[in-house]
Amino acid sequence: MTSRQPLIAICLTSHNRIDCAKINQEIFKLNFRTPFRVVHACSGPQKERYLEDAFIWCEPKPLQVGAINLIQRSFELACRSFSPEYLVHLEADI
User: Fold this and answer.
1) Is residue 55 part of a domain?
2) pLDDT tens-digit readout, 29-77
3) What is the rounded distance in angstroms from the CA atom of residue 58 to the CA atom of residue 71?
4) Residue-number span of the structural domain to which 81 is assigned
5) For residue 3, is it within any domain?
6) What confidence category does residue 1 fall into, taking pLDDT thresholds of 50, 70 and 90?
7) Contact, 55 vs 40, CB < 8 A?
């Protein structure tokens, strides 16, 4: 009998700390056996994928509205692309 691992999507959001977003992607993609799906919503200068499984660039908005927009867009993309059982939000700009 094998136990099935749940499908977990890491919803990463970033604005201006692109290096931190890339480091977080490396941690999840290169160091874990669990096949996490990494979804990245970015409103900063990065406009192309790095290691993430799905990427969306979002128009920059004021701080609170922009942060909420990035979270919502990353969740929507994760659900549409992978139908995960769990969503985990990770903010790269903190």
Assistant:
1) yes
2) 999 988 899 999 999 998 999 999 999 999 999 999 999 999 999 999 9
3) 11
4) 8-91
5) no
6) low
7) yes
Are residues 59 and 93 in contact, defined by beta-carbon separation less than 8 angstroms?
no
**Length of the chain measured in residues:** 94
The predicted structure's pLDDT at residue 2: 61
Residues 60 and 47 sit within 8 Å (Cβ to Cβ): no
Beta bridge partners of 11: 39, 89
In a domain, 2, yes or no: no
79, 19 Cβ separation under 8 angstroms: no
Per-residue pLDDT, 21: 96
23 inside domain: yes
With a CB cutoff of 8 Å and minimum separation 6, the contacts of 58 are 41, 42, 43, 66, 69, 70, 73
Domain count, the chain: 1
